[in-house]
Protein 1
Amino acid sequence: MTTKHQLELTQVGIDFPTPKGPFTALRDVNLRINKGEFISLIGHSGCGKSTVLNIVAGLHQATTGGVILDNQEVNEPGPERAVVFQNHSLLPWLTAYKNVELAVKQTRNGRTKKEIKEWVEHNLELVHMSHAADKLPSEISGGMKQRVGIARALAMEPKVLLMDEPFGALDALTRAHLQDSVMEIHAELGNTVIMITHDVDEAVLLSDRIVMMTNGPAATIGEILSIELERPRNRIELADNAQYNHYRHEVLKFLYEKQRKVESVAAHRQKQSAVPKLAELKSDIA
Ligand SMILES: Nc1ncnc2c1ncn2[C@@H]1O[C@H](COP(=O)(O)OP(=O)(O)OP(=O)(O)O)[C@@H](O)[C@H]1O
Ligand SMILES: [Mg+2]
């Protein structure tokens, strides 16, 4: 029997036009994702993680290959692929409630006024934000804004939830709370999730599989690690779990040994000395 995947990235590559000619950011990215899977994308800064996510979101068009979601080719953004960005992109003139309501109304799935209200309230409840429904983004904290961003995405009932470093700008405690909320929501709703992160613990704690990307240009998938830890997962218990620590180690090894991205001190010095000192520039101007 063949299992049908919900989301398929096949030979995805992209060239960005630049003044110096095309820049190949990604090449031959192949990934099959099952319904309900939680996938993390991890890799060094600039390797192409957001580009992969944006191609799945339909915000960028692949130069080669393509993305198929439930037998349909992805060519443009759509409500079945909701995106949560790192810098919470709420509309500042709308309250938390109205921000979520707007997304619900845009999906136009024939809800009555009463049903819309209940659905917005339900989604704010999921992220524990009911108490601040009538506050403007400027009146709530970064973590709370991020919660509303997640509620807004969930309210669209996406088949796939795409999150680009959703907790990157948050302090460690807020981040831990939100990770727990996301795990609960994922357990309850069973959506497919693709999340970009730089945080190795976050990747191991949340994911079914961690997709590790090589450095660019022409970045691709280096390794995929399946995380076979029982759910629900508890961060405190896992801290002493040998299997958890093994997974952590595997990701760290990939990032810091196999895809090392550190300039040697000598190379760095050489570059520094190539930059004219401010005093020299000043004397040039004079
Ligand atoms: N529109 C564009 N035009 C030209 N080059 C681009 C464009 N978008 C991205 N790139 C290049 O593609 C590469 C991948 O960028 P991308 O933003 O996907 O990286 P990333 O892995 O998300 O990095 P970070 O972790 O810093 O967010 C980078 O070298 C970037 O400079
Ligand atoms: Mg990025």
Protein 2
Amino acid sequence: MGKVQEGKSKLSELYFATARSYTLDEFNERMSKIEEIDPRIKAYLYDIGYHRWSRVHATVNRTWTMTSDIVESLNAVRDSTDYVHTVLDGVRRYIICLENKRCSCGQFQLDELLCPHALAALRHRDESFEEYYSPYYTRANLLRTYEIPVNRLPDESKWNMPQHKSEEVVNPST
Ligand SMILES: [Zn+2]
């Protein structure tokens, strides 16, 4: 791989890792690496709007901010402290609220699927996990995805396109 090519694939890897970040800390750390490589890309991603491509900024599913707001949020759930657990994972400490299905790692509420910390809390409570993941993940609902017919796209050679369009080469923005 040439040097430019190598830089590009590193950037795209970094971009996807940034988009998939579960916490703002993770996001910001990866974003600053992107900026180091090319500040114009950071500006470009900012202009698009972080909420359009970054999981941690997505406007769906976010009623909490996972950084400094955590104390406030825990105050809000103080009536149900039974549901709040702290799990130590190596040197990191995670706070889980089972009632609100949230964990400070971010994964629980964003994927609507139990993270390892929530699983540990449930195991501690000797409780089963069925109630804690989104119905999207049930077998029945997964199978329902295929109830609607999905049409295959014909081979590219059969596409009916005006020639000037098919000859157009769209390069990624620089
Ligand atoms: Zn977690």
